Amino acid sequence: MKRHVCFELTMPNRGSWNGRWGGEDRKHYIIKSFSEKAFEKLQANLIGLWFYRWDDGWCAGIEGTEISGTESGRRKRMKTGFCGYDWMVNSIITYGNIMTDRERRETSHV
Q1: In the chain, where does DSSP find H-type helix?
Q2: Between the CA of residue 7 and those of 18, 34, 103, what are the distances in Å?
Q3: Average pLDDT over residues 28-57
Q4: Given 35, 88, 92, 100, which residue has the most CB atoms within 10 angstroms?
Q5: Could you list the residue range(s) of the whole structural domain that residue 93 is in?
Q6: Strand order, beta sheet including 48-53
Q7: CA-to-CA distance for 66 and 2, rounded, in angstroms?
Q8: How many distinct structural domains can be found in the chain?
């Protein structure tokens, strides 16, 4: 049986001139499916809330929640893309937090 995880992107802090984000009125989802074994192994990297802050005042939030197969289909139909931040979800799944390639290289040398 597959376990489905929905990662939702939000921008809780916006450094724009008007404090708004152009994508705030749309749903930004990435849906991933995992085998039972993979889900159990990676659960700490799948379910939760992660943030990434840039120096310019912007902050991305990624929330991972387990959803049903039915809900997975519904959300896939209503999603509008992930605004180029798919790398954040890949980083969360692989490393348990959001880090750029540069940040990973810098921390691996510490």
Answers
A1: 36-42, 69-78, 86-95, 101-108
A2: 27, 13, 22
A3: 95
A4: 88
A5: 2-108
A6: 29-35, 2-13, 59-67, 48-53
A7: 11
A8: 1
